[in-house]
Amino acid sequence: MGKELTRLLETASPSEQEQMKKDIEGFQKLFRSLLQRRGPSVEWEKIQKAPEDSIQSYDKIKAQGVLGDVTPLLSKLVVVKLNGGLGTSMGCKGPKSLISVRNENTFLDLTVLQIEHLNRTYGADVPLVLMNSFNTDEDTKKILQKYRQSRVKIHTFNQSRYPRIDKESLLPIAKGLSLSGDNAEAWYPPGHGDIYASFYNSGLLQTFLQEGKEYVFVSNIDNLGATVDLNILRHLLNPPNGRRCEFLMEVTDKTRADVKGGTLIQYDGKLRLLEIAQVPKAHVDEFKSVTKFKIFNTNNLWISLAAIERLQKENAINMEIILNPKTLDDGRNVIQLETAVGAAIKCFENALGINVPRSRFLPVKTTSDLMLVMSNLYSLNAGSLTMSDKREFRTVPLVKLGSSFTKVQDYLKRLESIPDILELDHLTVSGDVTFGKHVVLKGTVIIIANHGDRIDIPPGAVLENKIVSGNLRILDH
Question: Any idea which positions bind UTP (predicted)?
Answer without folding.
Answer: 96, 159, 191, 222, 365
